Amino acid sequence: TVTTYFIISSPFISYFFYTEIRIRDLPEILRRSASSSAMVMLLIATAMVFGQLFTRAGIPRQIAAFFIHIT
């Protein structure tokens, strides 16, 4: 697919267009990229878990009832 093509070809494209990136810098670049991606995925997973817990506990319904009661 197109996504696979870009994932495979992006290191070669960056090597020719960004000459300041050297081959020996790639492991560090990939490590930092993986670390950043892992942090974002952890945040998303945590938000999904809390969303499920709040929904099962009925907290959104209680908040809505509170605001309806105020007005």
Describe this structure in words.
The structure is a single chain. This protein is mostly helical and 71 residues long. The chain is 85% helix and 0% strand. It has helices spanning 2-17, 26-57, 59-70.
Brief summary of the model shown:
This protein has 71 residues and is mainly α.
Distinctive features:
71 residues; mainly alpha; 3 helices; single chain; rod-shaped; 85% helix
Give the helices and strands, then pairings:
Blueprint: H1 2-17, H2 26-57, H3 59-70
| Proportion of residues in helical segments | over 70%
Share of β-strand residues:
under 5%
CA gyration radius, whole angstroms: 22 Å
CA distance, first residue to last residue = 54 Å
* Average of the residue pLDDT scores: 87
Overall body shape? rod-shaped
Structural class: mainly alpha
Main β-sheet description: none
Question: How many E-type strands?
Answer: 0
Summarize the helix and strand pattern as letters.
Answer: HHH
Stretches where pLDDT is under 50 for at least 5 consecutive residues are none
Number of helices: 3
